């Protein structure tokens, strides 16, 4: 029996203008995972995403095949490119992982889950629409809500605060650890470890 391929999609907006934004934390996590795999992103032949193919896990004990993906479109259009990659690599929704920012949990907190609604997140809404189901995994990276009267869309499209940036590399690494755990150890064990 062949082990299934996992498709791990980091959600965000393309281009340097968005690179440091809270909304782009999915891109940051996939960059960390690509670094662990010793690979750089390259354009997929669909032209709609950048990908890295390889395996997560230790060199002596490599895990299943993983495709890391960063859609080359705005967040609210992520579903099309991710679904196209899932079709190309023959990945079922249950082996898709979306890494995204989450307003409803504080910065410094992670939640890993399977299925659920989109909770007002445009990237998740686009994925649910393109797949026709919400039954894919999510690694939800907490960014908290804006204080005061700041508009939510302005907040997610702004850089992490100076205080947050001090811990950002650690939080990105922890989210990458959660993805590795999910692929190698399964959902239940990953939730026990990371859903603090």
TrEMBL record:
Sum up the protein's function in the record's words: Catalyzes the release of premature peptidyl moieties from peptidyl-tRNA molecules trapped in stalled 50S ribosomal subunits, and thus maintains levels of free tRNAs and 50S ribosomes.
Name the CDD domains for this protein.
Answer: PTH (cd00462)
> Pfam families attached here?
Pept_tRNA_hydro
**Top-level taxon of the source organism:** Bacteria
For this chain's UniProt record, which GO biological process terms are given? protein quality control for misfolded or incompletely synthesized proteins; rescue of stalled ribosome
Originating organism: Nocardioides euryhalodurans
Assembly information from the UniProt record: Monomer.
Top-tier EC class: hydrolase
* Family, as annotated: Belongs to the PTH family.
The Swiss-Prot or TrEMBL record annotates one GO molecular function as:
tRNA binding
Return the protein name: Peptidyl-tRNA hydrolase
Task: Provide the reaction this enzyme catalyses.
Answer: an N-acyl-L-alpha-aminoacyl-tRNA + H2O = an N-acyl-L-amino acid + a tRNA + H(+)
**Is this entry keyworded NAD?**
no
List the InterPro entries hit by this protein, alphabetically.
Pept_tRNA_hydro, Pept_tRNA_hydro_CS, Pept_tRNA_hydro_sf
- Kindly state which keywords UniProt assigns to this record, in alphabetical order: Cytoplasm, Hydrolase, RNA-binding, tRNA-binding
* Keyword hit for Membrane: no
